[in-house]
Amino acid sequence: MASTPGQDPLPLDQDTRFAWQELPRAAFDLETTGTDPHAARIVTASVVIVNGRDELLQHHEWLVDPGVEIPEAAAAVHGISTEKARAQGRDAAEATAEIASLLGELFQTMPVMVFNAPYDFTVLEAESRRYGVAPIDPAPVIDPLVMDRAVDKYRRGKRTLTVMSEFYGVSLVDAHTSAADALATIGVADAIARRYPSQIQIDPLQLHSAQVGWHRAWAENFQDFLRRKNPSAVVDPAWPRAEFGAR
For residues 118 and 236, is the Cβ–Cβ distance under 8 A? Predict the structure, then answer.
């Protein structure tokens, strides 16, 4: 039985757990031109697929010419300059179409893991709209950040991918390259599933639904906190991507 959004999944007996972390699964990560997902352009993208033994089956990677200047602050994070993107990058419209097509196919057979999914999927949706690419319905998505906030609400400290990789004992080499971040995302998601099996080892579609509620609850609480100093603060409750108007 699916959980109601906003509630914890019902604890499951060992025999009824769905060990998705032991099946083929994928991860997706973007590096971009900025922090606003509605305005940011794709610079690099990676999709990795692993099997139930954590062996890499496929690795798809794109270097994209975003068609705009890459700010120095963004280049300092992911290492791709405007000059390199223009000289070596793919056409943004073609790359966006390929990324969306691949993800759409993967969602038919397996979950896709994304750290802080609303950022990456909102960027992809915005780029798709920009270039007339058909939209995808991102589901089932598994987001380690949302899960970690739900199962370990009161742990102090930052919850970046780097910090969480260290906390869960996952190797992260070359952080802020899309391929490395995608592989670490799988590792962190798997570690959370092993540590909290009764909450996380459930059918991926049920887990997707639960994360919608978990993220909304977190966003509402965080917005209340921010409004103590800034009454107009807004935290988007939508997951796994921001809400868009009609196409």
Answer: yes
Q: Got the DSSP string for 217-237?
A: HHHHHHHHHHTTT-TT-----
Other beta carbons within 10 angstroms of residue 100's beta carbon come to 20
Average pLDDT score over residue span 193-214? 97
The C-alpha atoms of residue 145 and residue 169 are separated, in whole angstroms, by 15
Rg of the chain in Å (alpha carbons): 18
Q: Please give the structure tokens belonging to residue 13.
A: 């007996």
The one-letter amino acid at 214: W
pTM for this model (two decimals): 0.91
Q: What are phi and psi of 15, to 5 degrees?
A: -70, -20
Rounded to the nearest 10°, the torsion over CA 211, 147, 214, 30 is -60
- Would you state the pLDDT for residue 12? 47
* Confidence tier at 16 by pLDDT (50, 70, 90): low
Average of per-residue pLDDT values in the chain? 92
